[in-house]
Amino acid sequence: MRKEDVRELRVVSNLRTSHAKVVEQLGLAIVGGRFAIGEPLPGDAELEAQFDVSRSVLREAMKTLTAKGLVVAKSRVGTRVTDRCHWNLVDEDVLRWHFRTGVTREFIDHLYDVRLVLEPASAAFAALRASPEDCAELRHYAMLLGSNELDWPSQVEADLRFHVLLTIVGANPFLESMVGFIKASLDGAFTMAFDPQLAGRGEAITELHLAIVDAIEQGDAEAARTATERAIEQGRAAALKAVDSSQKRG
């Protein structure tokens, strides 16, 4: 992703093709447990009728699910759901499907542990490589967080753009390849934690993110790393609270 693309980043992407819709519905069904581990999926004819798609569209969808590690096709056996250890959890779609179908405290902790590995490192690199323009844009997004003038989805998008831009500014191609994971993590956590009372989160969330920008502007890699760790831990606490609330409602 290019820096200029971050400004157009949205939380939700529309599914525009038949292929994407089939992948989405089957992916949700698999991750949500509608099809058990080792269970064969329905035959091609049944799925073609269910989704009203051609054989070629269905086969492309199966190839996509196979690439994500969710299914495996074997001759004379059919297409079966693989064990979860084979699922590509850093894949943007697979991670999003987990949030859509429900996550546990353990899942959230594992997810935020990975964010603690990736994003503070990106912030440290950004402190060494960010331009004044990069810092200005990061500061702009940080100032939007907790704004009483923005609705919740707009705040989520500002936070999303901040963290994605932070990763890109770090200019490490391996970390940049994790942008989809970071996007899906934030999207899922914020959507799960939706609460009208959080729409005005105020100065605390802004200050956490401004501390990251300040450290980057000063070229202080360790301070940028530490400030990012604090922001992620705050996000972990909010996500865990949302899981607990969801379980109580259930």
Task: Describe this protein's structure.
This protein has 250 residues and is mainly alpha-helical. It has 2 domains: 18-86, Orthogonal Bundle (Arc Repressor Mutant, subunit A), CATH 1.10.10.10; 99-249, Four Helix Bundle (Hemerythrin (Met), subunit A), CATH 1.20.120. It is 67% helix and 3% strand. It has 12 helices and 2 strands. The protein has helices at 3-6, 18-31, 44-51, 55-67, 92-101, 105-129, 132-144, 152-169, 173-176, 179-192, 203-217, 221-249; strands at 71-74, 78-81. It has a two-stranded antiparallel sheet. Helix 7 runs antiparallel to helix 11 (203-217) and helix 8 (152-169) runs antiparallel to helix 10. 37% of the residues are buried. The mean pLDDT is 89.
Number of strands: 2
Q: What characteristic shape results from the CA principal axes? A: elongated
Total count of helical runs of at least 4 residues = 12
CATH architecture of the largest domain: Up-down Bundle
Low-confidence stretches: none
* Percent in strands: under 5%
Q: Which structural class should the secondary elements be placed in?
A: mainly alpha
Helix content bin: 55-70%
Average the pLDDT over all residues and give the rounded result.
89
The secondary-structure element order is HHHHEEHHHHHHHH
Output the CATH topology of the largest domain: Four Helix Bundle (Hemerythrin (Met), subunit A)
Radius of gyration: 20 Å
